[in-house]
Specification:
The protein is mainly beta. About 0% of the residues lie in helices and about 55% in strands. The protein has 3 domains: about 110 residues, Immunoglobulin-like, CATH 2.60.40; about 70 residues, Immunoglobulin-like; about 45 residues, SH3 type barrels. About 15% of the residues are buried.
Length: about 280
């Protein structure tokens, strides 16, 4: 830091009427700011596809917050897309997913480019709403030129899976998918749905879809005959087991190998299955 000051005193000449003395102090300071404004963080750069010969390079400048509503924050970013391919890209559309530092997805957006010649740079601005601070992002192609169709994710269609009775656990190709009724996503091809519910026989249902199928279909599977007696209690719960005896005051039922005694006043309805008599 350098500083210079000067003092100037005005004195009237002889014969000049007396004026108030004025003191002028000039201070000139040159201050070097130690803390310069923070530098812009480097852009988020994604080369697509992530493996094999590169086709596009996207550079996302810092996401600048433009507003917020509750937990949702609105951001904007200046994007540069470079065609690294040796062919013109007539049209390419991508969904991009943004993540926070914990790798939790917090939002998604959409970008597209068109008529990009080899080596061309395309600049545009994108907007996104996210539920946190953006730390990283991922690109998923939606529309690509014919030569790049193999990079598109496999097509999926949604199917509603139901059972009679409802509430069965369903698995898709051996992977738990939820409880019926349930909407599942399937790819074209052959699949197997497995249904299981306590008190009923487990069953399977073969399912085959084609690339021309559309979402909105449904599958309903009727579970096999109950394997155990069913007790419907007045509080809405349902028990499945083997009823061993009933009296005016209680019901004795064996559930999972454990004998339970239930007050008759708690029981709303009992459904007994037909059992085969033990052979002599």
């Amino acid at each position: 830091m350098a500083a210079q000051s000067s003092l100037w005193v005005y004195t009237p000449a002889e014969g000049e009427p007396m004026r108030p003395r004025r003191i002028v102090i000039w201070c000139i300071a040159l201050i070097l700011v130690a803390a310069a404004s923070a530098k812009e963080p480097p852009p988020l750069v994604i080369v697509w596809p992530p493996s094999g010969p590169p086709v596009l390079r996207f550079s996302f400048a810092r996401f600048k917050e433009t507003g917020a509503a509750g937990k949702q924050h609105n951001y904007t970013s200046d994007v540069t897309a470079e065609n690294l391919w040796d062919k013109k890209i007539s049209e390419a559309q991508f969904t991009f997913y943004v993540y926070d530092k914990a790798k939790v997805r917090i939002g998604d957006g959409y970008i597209s480019i068109s008529d990009a010649s080899p080596g061309a740079l395309v600049k545009f601005q994108t907007f996104i709403s996210a539920s946190g601070n953006i730390a990283s992002l991922e690109l998923v192609p939606k529309v690509l030129p014919a030569e790049l169709q193999s990079f598109l994710p496999a097509k999926t269609i949604s199917i509603t899976v139901n059972s009679v009775p409802q509430g069965a656990e369903v698995k898709l190709d051996g992977v738990p998918a939820g409880t019926t009724p349930k909407i599942v996503q399937v790819t074209p091809g052959k699949h197997v749905l497995t249904f299981s519910k306590e008190g009923f026989k487990t069953g399977t249902f073969p399912l085959e879809t084609t690339p021309d199928d559309v979402s909105g279909g449904s599958v309903s599977y009727e579970l096999g005959t109950a394997a155990h007696d069913t007790l419907e209690l007045r509080d809405g719960s349902v028990l499945s087991g083997d009823v061993e005896s009933m009296s005016a005051t209680e019901v004795v039922v064996r559930i999972g190998g454990t004998e339970q005694r239930i007050s008759r006043n708690q029981v709303k309805r009992i459904v007994l299955i037909q059992r085969e008599l033990p052979s002599e």
